[in-house]
Amino acid sequence: MSEQIDERLRTELQRQGVWVTSMQDLYNWGRKNSIWPLQFGLACCAIEMIATAASRYDIARFGGEIFRPSPRQADLMIVAGTVTKKMAPQIVRLYNQMADPKYVIAMGACAISGGPFKQGYNVLKGIDRYIPVDVYIPGCPPRPEALLHAFMELQSKIDSQKLTGAHKAVHLDPKQPSEFPVPTFGKHDLEPPGNPVVFQPPKIER
Amino acid sequence: MTPNPYLFIVIFVGVALAFPLIPLALAWIWRRIFQPSKPGPDKTSTYECGVESIGDAQIQFHSQYYLYAIILLLKRFAGGLKRK
Predict the structure, then answer these.
(1) What is the pTM of this model?
(2) Distance from B72 to chain A by nearest Cα, in Å?
(3) Considering only alpha carbons, which residue of chain A is nearest residue B45?
(4) Bridge partner residues of A191 (DSSP)
């Protein structure tokens, strides 16, 4: 709906002291400035996340300081650290229990791909195998500035989400799922090893 | 003519009702127009710690534990008295 307002008309009105907005802009403005993260950390990236929340880096400047201990109240899941295969079902279940709209930041090499433990037998090779990730932060661990940058990227993503139309946001589409299947412990690996709806890695032609 | 001195209570009740009801009504309208509700087995589950709950919450302890509970209570209580 934001494109229905003529930008030139809007600036002209603003010059005269009249502020106009659309429902979509108001909705996204409110959402992007009050992202409440889910409070949990998995490994050393969590220490960087704690530093980001503390006074020196101060994520409160972006409205994200309210870390909620309950998934029912959280908007954002920061997967901060190594996801072991033992922990993966719990992460997916917590994601499922979050209320829509919900977003995921994969923080650090481990959450993206398994990182230095990729060849290990007990580490999940990226949380994006089971849940959709919005922003990836590389680094081992990423500095607090990197997390703040990811937060700002997420804010710009939320700001660009459409309220109506064919390209509306995922949480507003009744056909898009809100829950994803929780993997179970198999004989050798998690079953299934990835959710094909979410995880579509590029095929390398050799 | 002075207004009824109890009029402000009526106004207060009106404000007290409007404050919670307006956001609730807005949320309801928003859900009807834009946001489809997507319930599911995980989303509506009682516990929110990430671990699946096992068994029933309404379990019964065996009655022979009652004796242990009484002994523990007596010991604690008597010990507390002795110290005084």
Answers:
(1) 0.82
(2) 35
(3) A97
(4) A184
Mark yes or no for CB contact A97/B34 under 8 Å. no
Tell me, yes or no, if B51 comes closer than 8 A to chain A by beta carbon.
Answer: yes
Q: Which residue of A has its CA nearest to B51?
A: A90
Residue A10 to residue A14: CA distance in whole angstroms: 6
Kindly state whether A100 is in contact with chain B, defined as any CB-CB distance less than 8 angstroms: yes
The token duo for A65 is 């300081």
The pLDDT tens digits of the residues spanning B5-14 come to: 899 999 999 9
Q: What is the ipTM of this complex?
A: 0.72
To test the contact with chain B by mutation, choose from A28, A68, A93 the residue with the greatest count of B C-beta atoms within 10 A, namely A93
Q: Which of B59, A59, A33, B65 is nearest to A78 (CA)?
A: A59
Sign of CA dihedral A160, A164, A165, A170: positive
Q: What is the pLDDT of residues A31-43, one digit of tens each?
A: 999 999 999 999 9
Per the structure block, which two tokens stand in for A79? 């997967």
Count of C-beta atoms within a 10 Å radius of residue B78: 10
Instruction: Supply B51's token pair.
Output: 């671990």
